Amino acid sequence: MDLPMKIFTHSSNPNQFAWNTIIRGFSISQNPQKALHIFIKMLRKTIEPESFTYAFVLKACAKMSAFQTGISVHVLVLKSGYGSHLFVANTMIHFYASCANLGYARKLFDELYQPNAVTWNALISGYVQNGLADEGLRVFELMRTEGIRPDDVTVIGVILACAQKKELELGRWLHGYVGDNIAEFGMNLNVWTAFIDLYGKCEQMDLARQVFNNLRRRDIGVWNALIGGYVSNGCYREALDLFQDLEMDGLDPDETTLVSTLTACRHMGDLNVGKKIHKCIEEKCSTFNSILGTALVDMYSKCGCISEARKVFNYTPKRDLMTWTSMICGLAVHGYAQDALDLYEEMLGTGLRPDGVTFVGVLCACSHAGLIDQGLHYFQSSMNTYKISPTAEHYGCIIDLLSRSGRLSEAYEIIRSMKSQPNPIIWRALLSACRVHSNVKLAEAAIENLFKLESDQSADYILLSNIYASNGRWEDVETIRRKMGEVVLRKVPGLSFV
Length: 498
What we know:
Blueprint: H1 2-10, H2 16-27, H3 33-44, H4 51-64, H5 67-80, H6 86-98, H7 102-111, H8 117-129, H9 133-145, H10 152-165, H11 168-180, H12 182-185, H13 189-201, H14 205-214, H15 220-232, H16 236-248, H17 255-268, H18 271-284, H19 290-302, H20 306-315, H21 321-333, H22 337-349, H23 356-369, H24 372-384, H25 392-404, H26 408-417, H27 424-436, H28 440-453, H29 458-470, H30 474-486
Helix pairs in contact: 2-3, 2-4, 3-4, 4-5, 4-6, 5-6, 6-7, 6-8, 7-8, 8-9, 8-10, 9-10, 10-11, 10-13, 13-14, 13-15, 14-15, 15-16, 15-17, 16-17, 17-18, 17-19, 18-19, 19-20, 19-21, 20-21, 21-22, 21-23, 22-23, 23-24, 23-25, 24-25, 25-26, 25-27, 26-27, 27-28, 27-29, 28-29, 29-30
């Protein structure tokens, strides 16, 4: 926008079209705030805005989610008499939807005499983008009832709603509709990308791959949708193979591609491919941000290279909460408990506020190092200072910490005080500790609750049997072994995977 702004500034008497053009340019740029500054300057020069002016300014407000400013512009629209202009009304609906005020958006929609396809699309997209897929689908059904023909924007919005709700049947109907109108939709890769994303979320990767294979032309968004689908469905090897195909196809991976592929490497433990992607980032990415840094830290940590993870963390600029949390969790899992806690305190010094995942890493570090008092302090801090409701993972860490240290009664009391039902992992942590510390009474209480949740796990029976055996209670050992036979359980043999 530098060059057009220079020309505009040096114009002695820019006309209405010039003002609108420069406002529109800034409204879709990376600096939409500037569009508002130009608009205010225009008002001060007593140049009367027209409908297009207001629409462009509202687009800038939507991009910034500037709710109060947008309301002020809405007032000016009503005063100027442009409120009934469909182009302006559509932009106002888009603005309110972007600011998550669907009540205002729906009110404007309902007041329109003859909404067009753009109006319907703005409302459907608004609902979907704010996680209200059900409402979006209801509006789509109403649109069909009114006889409004869906266009590509409609189809993409409805596919996204189907993906949120995992509405495979409606998604496949839309696929058929697009196929029947291939001349209208066939060249729009955004539509096909949305279908691949939908099938991935519905765990239908064969259908996603079929859509991908049928495309004659593919952009990076299409590749990302399929790679992301494979990763979210646990098909990590397929995702890594597809990444290699992408490079052979002559396309450069973008940030989304790299993050998805690093996630696949993390799950596969494929350090070689992970290092290759790291090298690709260094060679091809002009900017190294916290998103890529977090993905690399996580990958190296999960692949056992904690020193490499620390190197990436150190040179990651503008580290966000996820970057710090990934490094803290990585250090904790690798047994560097004090380093993890020191890093946590350093993070607090930057002004960042920890979330629930951060505290999982911190409590895990305390559990590994047996730091009981510190662990209890951080557990209380998460609830009292940061108002975080503890999850099963938090309770699991604190139960493990107390159990390892022999404070089984305290661990049991914390389990009983949980607001939600303790999961099998929590009871199993207590049961394992009961074996170490030969506490038969609590072991029986733990196993009773475990059997209520999962009665088919052979490991639980064997663990209780071993506890009885270590205390010389051979009759109880025989009873447990007999019960295992009655419910047809057998111990799963160990497997070493190298």
